[in-house]
Amino acid sequence: MDKKCTTKSADPTFAFVSLGCPKNLVDSERMLGKLVQDGYTLVPDARGADVVVINTCGFIESARQESLGVIREMLARKEQGEVGAVVVAGCLAERQGQALLDEVPGIDQIVGVFGREEISTVLDRARAQRNEQRYLFRPAPVRALEDTARLRITPRHYAYLKISEGCDRLCTFCAIPRMRGKHVTKPIEEVLREARELAQDGVRELIVVGQDTTYYGMDLYGRPRLAELLRELDQVQGIEWIRLLYAYPMYIGDELLETLATTRKVLPYLDMPLQHINDRMLKRMQRRVNRRETEGLVAQLRERIPGLAMRTTFIVGFPGETEAEFEELRAYVREARFERAGVFTYSHERDTPAARLEDHLPEEVKLDRRDRLMQAQQAVAFEWSNAQVGKEMEVLLDGPDADMPQHFLARGPQDAPDIDAVVRIKGKNLTPGDFVRVKITAADGYDLVGRALGAGW
Ligand code: SF4
After folding, report:
1. Do 181 and 165 meet the contact criterion of CB atoms below 8 Å apart?
2. Ligand 1 site, residue 301, Cβ cutoff 6 A
3. CA distance readout (Å), 315 to 218, 320, 341
């Protein structure tokens, strides 16, 4: 590679690509903060950067292919002399380890999920082309890593708050515990410190994440303490909305139900992946809940939390799933009427117990079931959208709508960023991060259209 083409500025420069879920995004923001703190300059484009860092995702095949695609693209640019060195971080690095260097030889350095605190050392090595050690891995820490001093890449007015790392569940299809380790609760004081730091940095909406948020406290305090944490977060000045993602259908007792229902800033929104509803499938997935318990919990949530919007996720095509079991799931989706739902096809993860089960289904059967389930969910979601017409709601402004002049994209309590829908509103002199009362004037599929209420809109 022709060295001349990369800029040798006083402060070494780096570009950063963040892939995967909100938990990985928090890691990216922490690494960005550390690199800038350690004298690196972030540049918007990889062209001319001394180093490009790719924080990868590796939990299912499609995510791995996306990560490998970005890695190969950056290596091609390195070949052309556009980029100095390529560093791969995150879940794909953690999961594949040194094998990734054999699979993709051009990579300069790889760093595991728990090596993120030493990211500057890794970049120093990459720039120095020191190949004696091209990887850095650290064991999963017994104490959750701090996520302070982040250089945030989300819009200023919302941020993800990671309250724990890892997972103690053993869902047979899931490789996440292999990459993220056992469940480690972040102490309440530490979470509150981070929340205050984010509020001082202009955050209005806190989105609470972890692999399994309802398990919060079980390891560190020996009992669930999510309800208490949410009530404490409710006291943080500047925060207006608190949104809960990645709940597991367990440890949702009276105290948490009461907190979700009555705490002012906690939104009537809950993301709770269920994965399936058929008892035999739930057993094969080792979800440790059955249909009756699931239905009982969903009924309680609906009954106790006024205006609750529920998001969930399902897997279709799990090994052994019969047409009848799939149809049971489809009927349940029509009946349960989740406001938001995502559907994944089962991904054959060779280092998971499910990979050793018999009766794996052909890809076309999985894809067909995914489409049929999404169709059923789409009908439910569209009916929900239509039912909002004429109603008023408070929305949080995310920014101008690139497709429609004088329109802004916003989200209501029922919409988490990136995974749910939007509220398109007509108005002027609106600023991202503002809360605006709107009247819903139309439904547009999953999305809503509204008009800002009050003077001057
Ligand atoms: S709860 Fe299950 S699916 Fe979720 S991260 Fe843990 S093991 Fe994976």
Report:
1. yes
2. no
3. 27, 13, 11
What CATH number is attached to the domain comprising 31? Answer: 3.40.50.12160
Contacts with 360 (C-beta within 8 Å, 6 or more apart), sequence order: 319, 348
pTM (2 d.p.): 0.95
Task: Answer yes or no: do 311 and 451 share one domain.
Answer: no
Specify if 143 maps to a domain. no
Same domain, residue pair 243 and 371: yes
- Residue 86 CA to residue 126 CA, distance in Å, equals 7
CB of 211 shorter than 6 A to ligand 1 = yes
DSSP 72-96: HHHHHHHHTTS-SEEEEEEHHHHHH
Residue with tokens 């993602």: 245
Query: Is the domain of 383 the same as that of 450?
Result: no
Give the Å distance between the CA of 177 and the centre of ligand 1: 7
Q: In this structure, are residues 161 and 175 in contact, taking their beta carbons and an 8 Å threshold? A: no
How many angstroms separate the alpha carbon of residue 168 from the centre of ligand 1? 8
- Classify residue 384 as left (phi > 0), alpha (psi -120 to 50) or beta: alpha
Ligand 1 atom nearest the C-alpha of 180 is: 5
- Six-digit token pair at 191? 């979470």
Per-residue pLDDT of the chain (457 residues; tens, 9 = 90+): 344 434 445 789 999 999 999 999 999 999 999 999 999 999 999 999 999 999 999 999 999 999 999 999 999 999 999 999 999 999 999 999 999 999 999 999 999 999 999 999 999 999 988 667 899 999 998 888 899 999 999 999 999 999 999 999 999 999 999 999 999 999 999 999 999 999 999 999 999 999 999 999 999 999 999 999 999 999 999 999 999 999 999 999 999 999 999 999 999 999 999 999 999 999 999 999 999 999 999 999 999 999 999 999 999 999 999 999 999 999 999 999 999 999 999 999 999 999 999 999 999 999 999 999 999 999 999 999 999 999 999 999 999 998 888 889 999 999 999 999 999 998 878 899 999 999 999 999 999 999 999 755 4
DSSP 10: S
